[in-house]
Specification:
- With 302 residues, this protein is an alpha/beta fold.
- The protein has a single domain, classed as TIM Barrel (Alpha-Beta Barrel), CATH 3.20.20.70.
- The chain is built from eleven helices and eleven strands.
Amino acid sequence: MSGSNHSSGNFRPKLPSWIRVKVPCGEQRAHVEDLLKINSLNTVCRGAQCPNLCECWHRGTAAFMILGERCTRNCRFCAVGHVEKPLPDPEEPARLAEAAASMKLSFVVVTSVTRDDLPDGGAAHFAKTIQALKAKIPGVKVEVLTPDFNRVEKDIRTVLDAEPDVFNHNVETVERLTPLIRSKAQYRRSLEVLKIAWEMTGGRIPVKSGIMVGLGETDDEVVQTIRDIRETGAEFLTVGQYLPPSKDHWKLERYVEPAVFDAWGEFARNIGFTHVASGPLVRSSYYAEQLAGDGSILHVKI
């Protein structure tokens, strides 16, 4: 693999037929966009340039991103900007809950930028957001996708004590590539976060993680990573295709064929994962409500 993360030509080679996205349009997408603007909310859909943004917004779903638009880390795969930001907005949890209620959501995904500048990494803000959602929308289920909180157990506990319905922290890539791609993050530390979360609740709150492929990893490394995640106690898994946001991000090394994603999904199921989504367009929050609900391998139709 080349030592550079820059492509000399097109940063994203021609998309294969299995990864092209149909873009639905309609009033519902505009409604979501208006709600986010009115309530001054951010989504990881837009911040991370998710290829499923149009489809999800058309369905009336969105993964909310709290704690600002800018991250204190600078991972080489991620489109989210990076810089320290002011203190969290105390009104954000209530506004987010209001927007989710207006969207008539029964399942809400909440993620965030990484805030290493905050004493608790933003854990209390996560907790307040979960509480606001559950107070506003009776019966709502909340999945959180958190940073690693630098492995501080009390901060992980703060989030878990707010009773999310799924606790998600992404490993993102294989161990060999982690120091090259993930700013400040550590592969083993991410695994420890998953294990801590599982042990703190005794498995009562499902633990989830995800990885991207196409960054230069081998198939054997993907299998090992899936195995490592399962050994933490995590039962939910997502595996998706990496798509570089720009020529300045980590270089795309390959497009993985759907049959390979299917094989990884079956392997994950065979070693004990109960909920698996493995496919080219899979992202952490894509069809999260269906993945959390039916316990089957999710085959994403393209």
